[in-house]
Fold each of these.
Amino acid sequence: MPGTRRLRRLLLVVLLPFIGSCATVLETYQATQEPPSVEMVIDRVNTAARVFELEDIMLHAMPFSAGSRWPQDCAKPIPLGDTAQLAAIVAQDALFSPGSFFRPSAIRIRTLYLQSILFESAPNLHYQRKYLDTPPDNNAIRAFGKKILGENYNPVFNPSLYRFLRYTPDFVPRRRHFEGKFEGAPAEYFANLEDAVISLADNPERLQQIRDDMRETDDAEKRAVRDIDDATRQIKKLKDEDENKNASEIKDLENEIALHRKEYDTAAARYSELLTAWKLELAKVKKQTTAFTPEQRELAVNIQDAVDLVKSLDLDSTTLVFIAMARLPDSLMNMPDELKRLLHAPFAGERIARILLNIISLKDNIMIIRNELGQHYAEANAMDGLFAGRIQIATVKQPEKPHPAAGENN
């Protein structure tokens, strides 16, 4: 069909600058072979959202040290045995049932693999994302720390645990990511990748001030996204009960979504301003020449590996978002035929309900994810090559670490 051929050419032209890995190549090719489908658009948007969450966790929540190995582990090719096993898991989704037009997403398979490295457990793609208005208190953080790390865990990890609890409580990180060593001794740990960067800079005070402002603004963004999701679910519930009878409440909720979108846009604009300041301040770090200790040098190498990883994930998620945007118009036009087809498909009720719920805020979600991805890429890109020059400089003697005081790890 001429329309299908034009769409395939459009997809390839739009996505060509983003195609840089096997997963993105396969994803793009599969998209050109598929019939229009809102369900598949939603699946790609949800996968993109999960990849975005992984980026956010890697930048802001995963503990980081010279002994951290997760950046290298996540960058390795997926073993063939694991690929087959993960593909089988993805294929169990009703969307990919026998006789379906669709095939499991290569990027989703990679996402599952990364989750198996990083987490003891993680939610499915369709889970209800959480955000705590009230920050977790010290008791909640300690309970979470004991669950993952044992009774006498080191409180140096509390900032990382706090971040998991407040923004991604359904993700439980693996204990081994808190146990890295350097030259046989426990490595110095930082709450996240960006705190590790600040520790190696000669201008840490200004960088920390900007990061604190960025975290506060990021908090406002996440709150707005949570409120949009909550209002969307309420609208779906009211429509299911009686759309005509609940028309007034539905209209109020639609206005509420518009208000939260404005709140999100305001916070996102502020975040972009702060991100510009962050990049300018980091540019000064590239010119700094203070020699590293051996541990600091290894930390700098780890930072670069983590930055490369985050940028590759951003490529995956951006590919999904652009495919979803390109396929959305014809998928919406084809939606009546798709719903008829689904009436005779496995788990018909659940799948149709999922489409009707997600369609309410699909365009908003695509635009929000696209914006957030741009911010993450800019954050990671600002740290790319940050310490390349200093890594080449001869290291200075490693200072002896003081013995921990009694009770420090309690």
Amino acid sequence: MNTNAPENSGPGKRKPVVVSGGLNRRDILLAVAILVGILGFVAAAVYSTGTAKNPNMLSGEIREKYRTGEQIRDLVVSGKGVSDKVVNSGCYLKVYVASVDKIYNVMLAESEWETKRVGDKIEFLRPASERQ
């Protein structure tokens, strides 16, 4: 028999599990720092997606309202019959965009065109020929 062998080194013996009592100040500060970091990252992501501006959106001032009187209709023939829809109502606005120093003709639906007044601000999509 070996008297120098440790008591719990036998085949059926394991080291006892040590449980530390509670949290200390360092653990709490570390958890709070991690939580603040995660919340800050989420807030920055939400802010950056909400403030990203589409370069193809223009904002300008309405200078003039006019109608061309034409209406373009889209006829659809299907098994249910023929249906039509007004695609272009002939209602336009002349909008001055100061950032590019240019006047654009913006087509609107008649219902929206009636609510707009000269001097109002409006945002619209840049024409396809000028998109970036």
Amino acid sequence: MSDADEMILAGSRPQHSNPIDALHSRTSFVFVVDSLIVIFFVYQIFGNLALVPGLFFLSVWAGYRSRAAWAYWFVPLIIAALTAIFCFILLINVIQMLSGSITSLVFSLIIGYAIFSSIRFIRIHFHPVYKMGYSGYSIYDEGHKLPANEMLAACPTCLAVLAVNPMLLSREDRCPHCDSPLVLGGTEEE
């Protein structure tokens, strides 16, 4: 590898070399945010008893960050529980919005996006490539060499990892796993 391959431009953040590591990092962050929301609501209702779920979430997060096998399914279960609560809050806000509350409209959009995002982070735990990456298997460790014009990319719908030539992608190209378009609208040069 040459020095130019390792160069990081000033002011830019270094990126993970493995897309699974990047996805794991984002999922860990979402879990922390969701845990803090749950702890906040538990504290509002039960006071200092919020320490109990706080310690539980901290231990799950630490296990998940270190890729412990026991922590793998706790994260999507906890995110799913919070998503169910978000759905209930969304329903309440939609009812208020129908009575003319503009604030409920804005809050409904925010909660709707949180639900959509949470469901995507839950879904990745069912994908076999993510499971393999979490357990320590990496296609980079196997010595796979891609041609110079190809790169690894994830399908925007099912997150399947594909070797693609980005210069040749068009709106007609579809994922071989889920048959969804690989190029979403507005990203291809006209």
Amino acid sequence: MNILYHLTSPSPPIPGTDAVFQEIEALRRRFGGECLQLFPLRRPSRIFPKKLYGLHQHRALRRVEPSVDLHHLYYATLYPFPWLRALRKPLIYSAVTGVGAHIECGRADSSGKAAGRDWLKTVHTIVSCNPRDEAALRALRPARYRIIRPGIAVERFSPVPLPLRDELVLLVGSAPWIRRQFQTKGIDLLLDVAGSLPLRLVFLWRGLLRDELGRHIARRGLARRVEIINEATDVNRVLARVHATVVLAETESQVKAYPHSLMESLSAGKPALVSGCIPMADYVAETQCGEVVPRLTPDDLRAAIQRLMDHYGERQAKALARCRADFALAPMLEAYGEVYAQAVKPSGWRAS
């Protein structure tokens, strides 16, 4: 099967440290295919217009389109990228943070008429890993959507229980891409509360804004209580020496609905600390494998950390009992295999 994967974010400076790229590589190993980079810059940027993504690859896309069986696009939310209307082979669209409440629509077509959601006709199947999207997806594509929980190679992570004694050691996942995310991903908040709690932080960084992080730490006098890992590393070894992993966000659109760092942590038997706006919080609450931070405030974060410390043994036991099976890679690959097979089946479907 010849699949063309559409990439809409720059490659991470440290290879293997981005969850979307990891997932695409897992799919390529199983199903084959090539990648086309449609993000035009080498570094992330909030100000570059989404409508210009892929303009530099217009000729390349036209050249390879006849030889592919289907397209698979990964992006945070649903968005009417202009190049989608040029596709003639089936398109699978994975919304990695989820569809959410605000579905972006086209502004207008060449005649000046509002495009609305007509662009969705170019999509064969919408895939979300966010069960909260069920109602929205049912309304958008009643017969053409799937909720697929992401999976990872859980065999790479060995449960190594670490007793909780005098202090809690937290691995910090989902590092910022841009400076603003020090606030919106709760990095500054974590550093602020660390000064008043028996807490040590291990930042798993990915090559961007390392000096900026150092300044944020130095301003708070926390150098002795913070470790920064800013290189390719064996995450399993890092998890062996922490108690839990934390991922925070102001809104659900800022991180993957199921962050890989949390799935890896739980697969190693280490509880999760997660913002309530992130869809994976529902799983954490249901399975009691960690604690949910309702809002990104100092009081809510301190309270969640204290609950995790008070009930650490129970949360650790829940993670060890269930999470490896829930996040295995095979079910995700099987589900995508079904989506791909349906998309290429001779059925008369064509983009309109």
